[in-house]
Amino acid sequence: MKTRVPAVLSLTSLALCLVSPVLFFAGKINERTYRLAFLLTSIAWFVFAILWASAVRRNKEKP
Amino acid sequence: MYKYYQAPWGKKWLSHARESIIVPSRLATLTSHMDKLYEFDREPVSSDKLQSGGKFAGLFAGEHVAATEFVIGAFFVLHGVGARDLLLGLLFGNLLAVLSWTFICAPIAVRTRLTLYWYLKKIAGPGVTFIYNIANAFLYCILAGAMISVSATAIGLAFGIKVPALDAVLPTSVGWVVLTFVIGTAFTTVAVLGFEKLSRFAGVCSPWIFVVFIAGAVAMLPRLGVHPNLDNLWEVATTKIWNGVAVAGQEKLGFAHVLFFAWFCNLAMHVGLSDMALFRYAKKWTYGLFTAFGVYPGHLLAWICSGVMVAAIGRQMDPGRMAFEAAGLAGTFGLLLAGWTTANPTLYRAGLALQTVTPNWPRWKITLVAGAATTVLSCFPVFFLKLLDYVAIYGLVLMPIGAIVFAEHWIFPRLRIEPYMAEKRGWTFNGSALIVWLETLVICFFLPLHLYFRWLPGWFIALASYTVLMALRRKEGVR
Q1: Given CA atoms B5, B11, B16, B21 in this order, what sign does their dihedral have?
Q2: Contact residues on chain B for A20, CB-CB shorter than 8 A
Q3: Do residue B215 and residue A38 have CB atoms under 8 angstroms apart?
Q4: B6 assigned to some structural domain
Q5: Quick one: which of B199, B140, B190 has its CA closest to B8?
Q6: ipTM of the complex
Q7: Under an 8 A CB cutoff, do B215 and A21 touch?
């Protein structure tokens, strides 16, 4: 459970990273919005992925 | 290109072969120290430590997206590769690379369960192994230097420092030197202080860096005039991206060049057998096929994406600008992180190889020396501006060792040539191996072929000449 939540959130962030350029390409958002959205979803990926990796590591280290 | 990660199933970094020479008295000491460095790899992997195919797929999936991908894919555009040539060349070239891992590297690793280091020592002796180590260290430093240069283009953009022109060899401005020096120093400091933490961080970065490539390329498509319904995608690809026209001063490359490049860009790892370190953990030699999970995203998709990006910025080799315009600030960070996370393990590898000549130095000191050398090399733009040629040379230099090991492993038993003579007779140098290595490189240098194609005849030359020389030694009973 402790690993599942950050795992889901990080993978969702990564998927969202790909959504913003597609929306920009489709003309649904402008370039500025695309760049900002990509930056924010990227930050989210790093936060959740690091939490995920840490949780996995803690689980492995448990006796 | 190639990144080295901590294997998910191992506590230590997988050792890629490299190793040891000098004069016998000093060499004995060096060899002993060197062996200690690789002590944890000395014994063949036991059956309880073998890993599943899924773990191999996962490991390879994150391995082939490095900072150099920003440059390589872009260079194909600058070299005037046509769209069809690029796609077919990458498709089949990567297939050949996967098959080389599967049919050349993995079977030897699975049969011996050893790293190249220990296997080469049995075959060529500690002296040749030592030379191999040093050559590897030097080549690693250049590669890490190229990665620092690529990252420098990302930071340089913010300070208005121009990327050197395509024909530049020496540093073109004080700003460039200062920039590469600062970045090289930062990378080295981090490598010295916290290598293991960064290696874990690299694992987090890897999927995201791949996403940066995809996002950047998709976002650049409107600038190239691709319609949202993609109906003119192929037309744009053939006329505005891979239009078959090389930029001024760049050599025109075609299908065969792309095919061979995709094949040899990891030559040291598959035909050169460095990846024995990984595949010795494989249950079956067919796990070599799992390398496809790495090379197709990294050496096909990422190269295509960087090609799209460079075309969209007017076919200029400026990875920093390319990444920024394609993905904004995140793109710049992506490029910087790609350089950082790949230069770091490369520095570590160079340090590990160099440690053989300075056996009493602590790890931090040798990493510092490797980092300093790498930082100096990164000031010279030639290494990243001629990256395609450098990658060819890198593979070529180490390839004969792979041929020697292949001959000893597969051909000698069939010809009833005694294997492992160096080990059995206590040779410091297997002179035949050394001669074949040098002879192959000299012949390859003079071969009237394009640089990209020379390694293939070179491999057969090394294979045949080593077999003949060792057969003669058997007959003559020469030591």
Answers
A1: positive
A2: 215
A3: yes
A4: no
A5: B199
A6: 0.93
A7: yes
CB atoms within 10 A of CB B291: 31
Measured CA to CA, the distance from residue B121 to residue B344 in angstroms comes to: 27
Contact residues, chain A, for B203 at CB < 8 Å: 53
Encode chain B (479 residues) as per-residue pLDDT tens digits: 655 444 444 434 333 333 333 345 555 665 666 565 554 556 677 777 788 887 788 777 767 777 888 889 999 999 999 999 999 999 999 999 999 999 999 999 999 888 888 888 889 988 898 888 888 888 888 888 888 888 888 888 777 777 777 677 788 888 888 888 888 888 888 877 766 666 677 778 888 999 999 999 999 999 999 999 989 999 999 999 999 899 988 899 999 999 999 999 989 889 998 888 888 888 899 999 999 988 999 899 999 999 999 999 989 888 888 999 998 899 988 888 888 877 877 777 777 777 666 667 777 788 888 888 889 888 888 888 888 899 999 999 999 999 999 999 999 999 988 888 888 888 888 899 999 999 999 999 999 999 999 999 999 999 999 999 998 887 655 44
B329 domain-assigned = yes
B10 token code pair: 């191992």
Residues in CB range of B227: below 8 A, 6 or more apart: none
Residues B237, B238, B244, CA angle at the centre, nearest 5°? 125
Contact B219 A18 (CB under 8 A): no
Counting every residue written for chain A, the total comes to 63
Chain A residues with CB under 8 Å of B218 CB are 18, 21-22, 24-25
Residues 188-247 of B with CB under 8 A from A: 200-201, 203-204, 207-208, 211, 214-216, 218-219, 221-222, 226, 228
Which backbone phi and psi does B243 adopt, to 5 degrees? Answer: -90, 5
A48 Cβ under 8 Å from any chain B Cβ:
no
CB < 8 Å to A53, chain B: 200, 203-204
d(CA B331, CA B151): 11
Q: Does residue B9 lie within any of the structural domains?
A: no
Determine, for residues B208 and A42 on separate chains, whether the beta-carbon distance falls below 8 Å: yes
How far A25 CA sits from the closest chain B CA (Å)?
Answer: 6
User: Which structural domain range is residue B241 located in?
Assistant: 24-388
CATH number, domain at B262? 1.10.4160.10
Count of CA atoms in the C-beta half-sphere (13 A) of B295:
26
Domains in chain B: how many in total? 1
